[in-house]
Specification:
Elements (H helix, E strand, L loop, with lengths): L20 E9 L4 H19 L4 E9 L2 E9 L6 H12 L14 E7 L3 H7 L15 E8 L8 H19 L5 E14 L2 E14 L5 H17 L8 E4 L15 E2 L4 H4 L20 H18 L5 E8 L8 E5 L6 H8 L6 H8 L25
Parallel strand pairs: 3-4, 7-8
Antiparallel strand pairs: 1-6, 2-3, 2-9, 5-10, 6-7, 10-11
Helix pairs in contact: 1-2, 4-5, 7-9
């Protein structure tokens, strides 16, 4: 990711409370976190089906615990996918290959509980069955998209930096330079804002799984002197309060230590708490599910508002009824940072129907494994970020 456009503020006392100041904290988790293992397996299965039949209907849920992976959900497709092979490949790519541990790519058992999509849903989603002869929303619900000009990625700074830390851990582990780093990890970054402008990084928390042959002081030194300066870039400062593996030990990690389930990291997947969230998860869902495609499109529209200078911050809310193409409502909020009326008029030019979203963002492609980890937004290779 590119460095943020803003540089750290030269406040004389950055930790002093101000009437317009507040601190926002956001967390990220690594690809080896149990919940993210499940998300990655689900999106890998989704990609496998879409690569064979783009119109596949996939709602894949995953649970991982100890040496067992449970697949559940509904899939309607003409594609033929070896689910177990996909599971093992995904786990291998994440890095769980040590046969001495219960959860590894070769030894896990895979249990499947899959059915086809309900015909009652299909008759509303499929254009040839829909009473209005167009693709309806795959479910009811509300979705949000958000953008802010505080970084070049138009993302909130705390979640952007938190993702850089966890991705940095994974990069160092995979490079072999720090072989003691395990796949399971978390980070958390707290940023002091002066008004709506990020001014200072106050606190950084890093918890990383590790081997038994490394000491706590060595891990803390790596985070403070190597990982954090590289990941935080211009936002690194010597006054940051660090907490590294606060329990003192993190050898036992991954699904053996903690049960993982699809869709439990929805705030880390989006804006780190800086904006609203409708509650729907992304991973394992094909783009007919507006939980995913609707949220991606709201982000796309919010980005356009900020990019065109209509506001410094923008949030879009959209609501759908199952089986109905046109949204129930679309709401625009610019938080007093622009002309809300002009932003509303601008948004009227966007088509929020599911089929139009899928076409505009080119979503019938096997792109979803690339969204799973380190945020679904802020990556310039994704169509809703362009």
């Amino acid at each position: 990711m590119a460095d943020s456009v803003l540089e750290a503020s030269t406040l004389s006392n950055p930790t002093a409370p101000k009437s317009t100041s507040f601190t926002l904290s956001s967390e990220s988790v690594s690809e080896g976190h149990p919940d993210k293992v499940c998300d990655y397996i689900a999106d890998s299965i989704l990609d496998a089906y879409i690569s064979q039949q783009p119109q596949s209907r996939v709602a894949c849920e995953v649970l991982c615990k100890e040496n067992t992976v449970v697949l559940g959900g509904e899939i309607s497709s003409n594609g033929h996918v070896d689910h177990e092979a996909i599971v093992r490949s995904a786990i291998r790519q994440i890095g769980y290959t040590d046969r001495a541990t219960a959860f590894n790519s070769e030894a896990v058992q895979v249990l499947e509980f899959m059915t086809k999509q309900s015909p009652d849903i299909a008759r509303g989603v499929d254009a040839d069955k829909n009473v209005d002869h167009e693709q309806g929303a795959g479910d009811q619900g509300i979705m949000f998209g958000y953008a802010t000009d505080e970084t070049t990625e138009l993302m909130p700074l705390p979640i952007l930096l938190a993702h850089r830390l966890t991705k940095g851990l994974a990069d160092d582990r995979k490079s072999g330079r720090y072989a003691w780093i395990g796949p399971d990890a978390k980070s958390q970054v707290s940023v002091l804002y002066d008004g709506n402008t990020p001014a200072w990084v106050t606190d950084v928390l890093v918890s990383t799984q590790h081997s038994t042959d490394v000491t706590q002081p060595d891990i803390a030194a790596y985070v403070r002197s190597t990982l954090a300066p590289r990941a935080l870039g211009k936002w690194f400062n010597r006054d940051i309060r660090f907490a590294v593996n606060p329990t003192g030990n993190f050898v036992h990690g991954g699904p053996p230590a903690d049960c993982g389930v699809t869709g439990r990291k929805i705030i880390a997947d989006t804006y780190g708490g800086a904006a609203h969230h409708g509650g729907g998860a992304f991973s394992g869902k094909d783009p007919s599910k507006v939980d995913r495609s609707g949220a991606y499109f709201c982000r796309y529209v919010a980005r356009q508002i900020v990019r065109k200078g209509l506001a410094k911050r923008a949030e879009i809310q959209v609501a759908y009824a199952i089986g109905v193409a046109r949204p129930v409502s679309v709401k625009v909020e610019t938080f007093g940072t622009g002309e809300n009326g002009a932003a509303i008029e601008f948004v009227r030019g966007f088509d929020f129907r599911p089929a139009a979203i899928i076409e505009r963002l080119d979503l019938l492609r096997p792109i979803y494994r690339g969204t799973t980890n380190y945020g679904h937004f802020g990556k310039e290779t994704l169509s809703w970020e362009q």
